């Protein structure tokens, strides 16, 4: 097995779990937030900066790397770790989500998906076999099965067809996987917001015995209470001893609600994307740092933060950099936001260990402000 | 006196000098190249990265900081060092050059220059007194007198009027300077490419007894041999015991030719600007790293370089980042190019100490390629 997962403890009043995931590139304490390095780099940040903020695992996108620079080039580099100078763990998605959200003119058949590159317009094809071939070339520690991520809302008939195809594709991914001892392949449960369809998807995937399971097809437009409800029942069907990954989720409230329901892994572009727009998360809620309000504010972004940015720079300086379109400003806000989520997860882990997850969640929400959580 | 300058040695066959400049923020071995932090940041780089590559002094631009964020804000931060988290030396120019090169609708009178901001269109005014007030607020270790940088070509009558005004302005700068014990004010020799006018300018400024002198009005379009000729005679008139600064110059050949003629200090946006366009300097000449030629090139940018970029990343990875518009790529090329010039100056200093400046210059040119030097 490429990975080991150990359940270290569980909160007594919720389903929050404290775990430890070991991959060929190190130990990941869970629950964990994975920063996203879409194009083999976490936007604006160096590997050293990510390590300084205690990042243990990154996500990178198969679709983007397939299009540019091409997985053959990454393979030639010795894989993604070597290509991007990151010696800790990496997870790659399968490209499924991006094919459905970014590319144009896609056509789905049982064989796979034909689509046009959103960069070159070139006609391309991804199938379970092709996605796994790419992921094998990229060489991440955890790789995802090629799935269809259905939109929200979608009708039941379509959702059922789609999840069944996803199950058949999952089986083909397993068969195509050439490096099972180095890379753990996770299955993805689909089924939209229909309880019986989620159950069917979970059952079909469990039969294939994946070393880990993701919940896909959420955070695609459904109301948050609906997402939480789907997590409530879906996670209950997944095996305790395997890691569970909620894909594409990363706002503070979704991280808390996910952990509370038993999620171990999360990824999202949110912290780096809002950072580049000049929004930072702090223990007292979000700040839009470009605001004139901060032009003479000599405080650090977050009085309770000890990240590189907060140790060295004022709000006024960071505002100046952003107003002046200086890249260093984007670095400073990105460092702060990623650190914020990584540290929040660290505190959640400590709270689970101390059996006070709900108390920590309450303290966090009270200070952060309920209106800003999502 | 805010600074001390010690002449440590001189090459026996050229006028190349080895010196040591001490400011309130540290020791600067000369000849030195100063990276440019126009808007209180060296584009894409952190102070720690600049220190790792042994940068001892930065230049920042008075004109830009006057416009944004405003010198009152920088003063409130405790000065530029504190604002931008840089505890080594800083030099600020006076805004003179930018007023003439960037702003619109400028009108020059004896009192000063009225111009429109290139950002807001706002009507603004800079005079010797105002420029020094701003530079006093910014608090750099070395500050420059407010001068008029005449264009090339310019007629003799205009050049003469202009240098005489610059001399009168220099006197007013000295009178206005409120922090002479903390900030060394340098005078700027003008006079275009006319030998007698340069002599007149140097004489008038020497009478004012500045702790250091710059040669201004060069690298503004005149042929290189003409610039070198002006340096030949102008530097001979400047006092041996004071540092000499050639403003706005930074291509490898100009650095060599300047040092050979006795220049101690240089600044230029060249290394960071070309880096952001994807051009890197190497010991074997320039590479346009976006070129498809490098898509599978696993070498480091420069086989003889040990900068952070070259220690950790391949040409293929850097090319990928630049093609994908990833900011981290701009960081990597900027680090490399600034390091390249800083190390080149370090090697020039060692060569002067060993009395083999011309040999080192020849070795450098032979390897770099004569066609790529400028």
Largest beta-sheet characterization of chain A: 8 strands, parallel
What is the CA-CA span between the terminal residues of chain A? 37 Å
Q: Total strand count of chain A, please?
A: 16
Into which percentage range does the β-strand content of chain A fall? 15-25%
Proportion of helical residues of chain A: 40-55%
Strand order of the largest sheet of chain A: 4-14-13-12-11-10-6-5
The whole-angstrom Rg of chain A is: 20 Å
The 3D shape of chain A can be described as: globular
Oligomer: homodimer
Number of helices of chain A: 15
Average pLDDT taken over every residue of chain A:
97
* Uncertain runs of chain A: none
User: What is the SS-derived class of chain A?
Assistant: alpha/beta
- Largest protein interface? A-B, 35 and 35 residues
């Amino acid at each position: 097995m490429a990975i080991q997962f150990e359940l270290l403890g569980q909160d007594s009043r919720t389903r929050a779990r404290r775990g430890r995931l070991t991959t060929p590139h190190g130990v990941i304490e869970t629950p964990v937030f994975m920063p996203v390095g879409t194009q083999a780099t976490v936007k604006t940040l160096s590997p050293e900066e990510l390590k300084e903020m205690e990042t243990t695992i990154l996500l990178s996108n198969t679709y983007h790397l397939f299009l540019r620079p091409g997985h053959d080039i990454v393979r030639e580099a010795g894989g993604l770790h070597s290509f991007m100078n990151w010696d800790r763990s990496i997870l790659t998605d399968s490209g499924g989500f991006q094919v459905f959200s970014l590319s144009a003119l896609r056509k789905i058949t049982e064989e796979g998906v034909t689509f046009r590159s959103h960069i070159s317009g070139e006609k391309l094809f991804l199938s379970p076999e092709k996605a796994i071939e790419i992921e094998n070339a990229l060489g991440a520690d955890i790789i995802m099965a090629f799935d269809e991520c259905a939109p929200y809302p979608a009708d039941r008939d379509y959702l059922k067809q789609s999840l069944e195809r996803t199950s058949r594709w999952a089986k083909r991914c397993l068969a195509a996987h050439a490096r099972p001892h180095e890379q753990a392949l996770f299955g993805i449960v689909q089924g939209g917001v229909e309880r019986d369809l989620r159950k069917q998807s979970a059952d079909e995937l469990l039969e294939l015995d994946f070393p880990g399971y993701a919940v896909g097809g959420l955070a695609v437009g459904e109301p948050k209470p609906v997402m939480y409800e789907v997590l409530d029942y879906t996670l209950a069907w997944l095996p305790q001893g395997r890691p569970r990954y909620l894909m594409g989720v990363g706002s503070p409230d979704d991280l808390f609600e996910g952990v509370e329901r038993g999620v171990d892994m999360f990824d999202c572009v949110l912290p780096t994307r809002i950072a580049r727009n000049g929004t930072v998360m702090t223990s007292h809620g979000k700040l839009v740092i470009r605001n004139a309000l901060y032009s003479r504010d000599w405080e650090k972004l977050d009085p309770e933060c000890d990240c590189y940015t907060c140790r060295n720079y004022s709000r006024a300086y960071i505002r100046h950099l952003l107003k002046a379109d200086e890249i260093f400003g984007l670095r400073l806000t990105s460092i702060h936001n990623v650190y914020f989520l990584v540290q929040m997860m660290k505190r959640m882990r400590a709270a689970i260990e101390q059996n006070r997850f709900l108390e920590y969640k309450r303290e966090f929400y009270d200070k952060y402000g309920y209106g800003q959580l999502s």
